[in-house]
Amino acid sequence: MQGITFPGDRRAVLKDFPDPEPGPGEVVVRVRASGMCGSDLHFYRGTASFGGGADTIQGHEPCGDVHAVGPGVTADLASVGDRVMIHHYWGCDSCEQCRSGWPQMCARGSGKTLCLTAHGGHAPYLLVPARTLLPLPDSLSYKAGAAIGCGTGTAWGGIKRLGDVGGSTLVVFGQGPVGLSGTMFGAALGARVIAVDVEDSRLDRAREFGASEVINSASADLAEAMADLTGGRGAELVLETSGVAADDALSVLGKWGRACFIGLPGDVRIKTEEVYKKQWTLMTSWTMSSIEQKRCADFVVSRRLPVDELFSHSWSLDRAEEAYQWFDKQSDGKGVFEF
């Protein structure tokens, strides 16, 4: 089979790999959709300092069907033909973090991550431990399941870290696929969402995903606009998804406000002397647990949320270079490889 690799010089190269065979406790997934995530670009551009490499298949948002199961995989874990999402991390499976659904935080340091330390999903077949699989609801498309696996799931994780958002004013910085997902979830949970971006086209989409108000921070005075919208009180909640707007995010956070920073690379700086009287709670969030991934999918189903509409482009594997040249511009929506 062929899979997409990143040499690190803004090229996406197809390489030949053996078709995977499942060992004990493992499954092979027939990939049906593999999402393109903004974090891919750190490896595509060669700016990442960890993992990946020219011999590792990329893609950490795969979704598909169980194709084959290895020895010891019982039907309660996986059966051939099951529609599945994948939690794209796995660890020792016995430490406190792993047992609570957070293998990316494996206390023994034995964790694996798709596209970093294990082959990813930008290929027709994918080998993973059976324990990484989660059921894909029948009413969700494969590409929706792919998005929930990281980008949309990352927004869900950030929203859950913020706590009860219903009835509060939530400002979401950045309206790419992760930010739009945050806007969608915030609105669905009863928040008044104010979407911030520097592109009017993305702000138009934010309204479609539930934003009550939008601010173009490149053309409007952000502080003035926020003061008008909040009566000078500032926002109760902030979700920063762009990775470059931390200062702006803090500038609009009101007293007793809570802010979650999920955009990378991110550079959050405060001077305690200047902000301690504001009684802020500042936090980060790292995608989500396997438990929350399933809850996210169930929530999307129950509210009939338009996750499919996050995608503006679909690609075949043989158009990988064209796809990532487009994605590198970050001027449109989300892309996905479909098989």
Describe the structure.
It is built from eleven helices and 17 strands. By secondary structure, it is an alpha/beta fold. It has two domains: 200 residues, Medium-chain alcohol dehydrogenases, catalytic domain (Quinone Oxidoreductase, Chain A, domain 1, Alpha-Beta Complex); 132 residues, NAD(P)-binding Rossmann-like Domain (Rossmann fold, 3-Layer(aba) Sandwich). The strands form four sheets. Strands 3, 4, 5, 8, 9, 16 and 17 form a seven-stranded mixed beta sheet that branches. Helix 4 crosses helix 5. The model has no long low-confidence stretch (mean pLDDT 95).
How are the secondary structure elements laid out?
Elements: E1 2-5, E2 13-16, E3 26-35, H1 40-44, E4 62-69, E5 83-86, E6 89-90, H2 96-99, E7 112-113, E8 125-129, E9 133-135, H3 142-148, H4 151-162, E10 169-173, H5 177-188, E11 192-197, H6 200-208, E12 213-216, H7 222-230, E13 235-240, H8 246-251, E14 253-261, H9 272-275, E15 281-284, H10 290-303, E16 311-315, H11 320-328, E17 334-338
Parallel strand pairs: 10-11, 10-13, 11-12, 13-14, 14-15, 16-17
Antiparallel strand pairs: 1-2, 3-4, 3-8, 3-17, 4-5, 5-9, 6-7
Helix pairs in contact: 4-5
Task: Provide a quick synopsis of the model.
Belongs to the zinc-containing alcohol dehydrogenase family. With 339 residues, the protein is α/β, with parallel strands linked by helices.
Key descriptive features of the protein:
ADH-like_C; 339 residues; Zinc-binding dehydrogenase; globular; alpha/beta; 27% helix; Quinone Oxidoreductase, Chain A, domain 1; zinc; GroES-like_sf; single chain; Rossmann fold; metal-binding
